[in-house]
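User: Structure please.
Assistant: Input sequence and predicted structure:
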Amino acid sequence: IGALVINAPSINLGGGTLIASGFGALALDAQNSLTASAGAASSTAASTTTGPSTVGPTIAGLITAGSLTVTASRITTGANVDLTLSATGPVSLLEPKQPATLAAASNLGGSLAITGSSIDVATQIAMPSGRVALTTTGDASGGNLSLQSTGSINVAGVVQQYNGVNVASPGGSVILASAGNIDLAGGSTIDVSAGSGGQGGS
């Protein structure tokens, strides 16, 4: 069984679900970010979606029967976008050898759900006021969920201006569910705080 490698400065997943079949390994390699945005086809262009949405969430997904490796300086979504990454095998979220310096993520209310036999997080997941759910499906001996020293999950709220008024968004939620162990390395971070004056998450 072969492997599929997709390499671009940034990778953007649009609405709908992509199914990678016939590959033992799928690798997405982006120097900048892996993101998902509303109202756009999947491409290698960066997302430009900003601000809150007034319609239902955009559903985006990627499914593979093998392993999944994502190398990116940051993983995020557009506002009101639900992104699912699902692999039958292990999932590795890695940072590039020289991570890019990116502007702070500002799209609020996105959701990221990742499922794999094991999950290893060694890069930034940034979902302001959003939701992150990581679930492993392997057995007790190999279905571990690991957050490495370079890994971070940030669903903290931010302060944004609406009609000239500063508004603090609430902290989001992080759900970690492991069939094996959950390992949090020194230096790793999980942030569910609110924007100044807002309500913290969980």
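Residues 42-53 have pLDDT under 50 and may be disordered.
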